[in-house]
Structures are given as C-alpha cells and as structure tokens.
Design a protein that fits this description.
single chain, alpha/beta, 7-stranded mixed sheet, two-stranded antiparallel sheet, 9 helices, 11 strands, 17% strand
Length: 252
C-alpha cells in the first residue's frame, strides 16, 4: 500500500436524496432543477406507475402527503396527475421528461413497486440512458427480474443480498446462489449503489456493515456504497443526503 502522503484524495460524490428533499419539495421539478443548479452528478428518486402506465417520480404509494389526495398513484391517469400540485406548484414529473430535460444528470432510481419495473426499464432504454441510471430496490426479486431482462443494467442490492454480504464478511460463508441473488448471472459491472435497510429481521444491517469491506474492493460507507466494476479499482465514496447544499459546503 502506498504511503498516506502519496495517496490520491478522492472527493465523495453527493447523491441528492429525492433531489434534496429537506431543501426543496421532494421528487418535483424543483428538486430536479435544484440538483442541476448545485452541479451534482447524481439524483436519487423513487418511481411509481400511473393507471395508464406512465412512470412518475413519487415516493409514497398514495398522494395524501404530497398532493392532499387520498388516491393511490396507480389509480390516477397521467393527464390528471400532471395537473395536480406535486409540492412545488407544478405537476408531477415523468421519468422520461426528467431524462430528456437533463441529458447529463445521473439518476439512482428506487423501484417502489413490482409493477413499475418493466415500464421503468423500457423508459430508460427509450431514452438511451442505461449508462446514467442505476436501479435500486430493497426487493432482491424485483432487481433479479430487471437484471434478467437487461443484463447491462446497473443495480443495487436487495435485503437478502445485503444479508449475504454480512455472512460472507463476518463468517466467511459463501454468498448463496439463490434464484433472486445478485450473484446469479451477475453483470461484469457488479452492483451499483445500494441502500442498506436499517433493521432487516430486527437487526441493524447498517451498524454491522459500517466496519467491513466487501471482497473485491467495494466499501460499505454509511447508507450507500458502490461496488467495484473491476476488482482492485478504487472507487469514490458517496454521500447520500437530503441536504445536498449543506453536504457540498461541508466537503468544501
């Protein structure tokens, strides 16, 4: 290992959680524009499907918190959702519109429901954006379905995948070759950023994983990490925050 003085310092990449949901209304056009104005590479967001099959940015299953509407996102047609106030005085954001409006922005997208997987993947393909989109979910099954449909896709790890890493790091137990595991037919890219569930099965995965490095060079830092595409290649640490402006000030 080279001396500390000769090591290259790497600036962490800030991933704006829901576009910086503590600074602007989350998952709105204001949030997308906020990320762009800060000059950030990455925006984390959530996806759901409308009644007529349009992929939109929305964390919650229903519209109570954001639009004061008790209906589920999946019960509303896009034409109506486009006219509802998403939180910033404008309509909800379509994924395809966000991709085309900001062709250099990278998105880490959380697939909130199984029914949004195929539509989200096709939307990203149509926008030729596979190189700048990473698919995330706590559901290993959801991600496995996506990987089988598109081997080039960059994805996160599901809950069972994280537990598998815990077994490997703490007890040297080989990763299970399950039907839904990320090691099955794993892309050469490896998994992308992953969000560690706070308490799967009653245990804090985040607390137990903070001190560990995964074989192959990836590091589990805080709630997000990125696996090496190539073993031994250093990767930038990433900070995932709802206050990206504050994070940038802290990083200098």
């Amino acid at each position: 290992m080279p001396p500390a003085a000769s090591r290259t310092r790497r600036r962490p990449a800030v991933i704006a959680h829901r576009g910086g949901g503590s600074e602007v209304p989350e998952n709105t056009w204001s949030a997308v524009e906020h990320v762009a104005a800060l000059g950030l590479e990455w925006m984390e967001t959530d996806l759901r499907l409308t009644a007529d099959g349009i992929v939109v940015l929305s964390h919650d299953e229903d519209l109570r918190r954001t639009a004061n509407d008790p209906r589920a996102v999946g019960e509303v047609m896009w034409a109506e959702l486009a006219d509802l106030d998403s939180g910033d005085g404008r309509g909800f954001v379509r994924l395809d519109d966000a991709l085309y409006a900001h062709p250099t922005m990278k998105f880490n997208i959380d697939l909130k429901d199984s029914n949004v997987v195929q539509a989200a993947l096709q939307t990203v393909r149509d926008a030729d954006a596979l190189e700048r989109v990473r698919f995330a979910s706590f559901s290993a099954r959801r991600l496995a379905v996506l990987r089988r449909q598109e081997p080039r896709a960059m994805t996160s790890l599901g809950v069972s995948d994280v537990l598998g890493l815990m077994l490997r790091s703490e007890a040297a137990v080989p990763l299970p070759q399950t039907r839904w595991g990320w090691t099955r037919g794993k892309s050469r890219r490896g998994p992308g950023p992953r969000e560690l569930p706070r308490r799967p099965g009653g245990h804090s995965a985040l607390r137990r994983l903070r001190a560990h490095r995964r074989p192959g060079g990836s590091r589990l830092d805080g709630g997000r990490a990125r696996a090496d595409a190539t073993a031994g290649r250093p990767q930038r640490r990433r900070h995932h925050d709802r206050r990206p402006h504050l994070a940038l000030q802290t990083l200098g």
